[in-house]
Amino acid sequence: MEVKKPTPVDLTTIDTKRLKDLSTDLPGLIEYAHNVGGFSIVPTKQGVIRGNALKAMKQQTQMQLDMLLEQMKLLASQAQSIKDRAQVSEMIYDAHLKFSPVIGGRYYLYEKEGEKMVLSMVSPQEWGDEDRIGLFVAEVELLADHTWKIIRQQ
User: Fold this and answer.
1) Structural domain spans, the chain
2) Is the pTM for the entire model greater than 0.90?
């Protein structure tokens, strides 16, 4: 039995660029067999169908979540509006009233230094002199539930 001597490798004949393209740090993630006993992994029809269905499901789910987010923003805005109405209503019912407000009537809330707030039927333009009545706070309308809708606010 004759023993063969190894033949020397000629490094100039090796395409190092090609070898680099064919090698990887993570061999489990490449699409072809990376060793002699390995086999290539080819996507099946069932895998493609499953992948497409999963992509469609994720897109549909995201659309529904986005829609719910918009609805939550709208509800938060409406809740803030109700909170503002309640706050102004408290300020008005704590204010100095010399008349009985009528539902649907527009009134003006003023803040006078060192005194209670004042609810008036006279607009800031009609007063002319701000010092006479106080600082304009809000124009309001009395609603049927006896809360006040803010028309404009300072």
Assistant:
1) 45-153
2) no
| pLDDT tens, position by position, 60-106 | 999 999 999 999 999 999 999 889 888 888 889 898 888 899 999 99
8 Å CB contact between 110 and 89: no
SS3 content of the chain, % helix, strand, coil (to 5): 45, 15, 40
Q: How far is CA 10 from CA 17, 20, 21, in A?
A: 16, 18, 20
Sign of torsion over alpha carbons 134, 100, 86, 95 = positive
Q: How many CB atoms lie within 10 A of CB 109?
A: 23
The full DSSP string for 71-117 is HHHHHHHHHHHHHHHHHHHHHHHHSB-SS-PPTT-EEEEEE-TTS-E
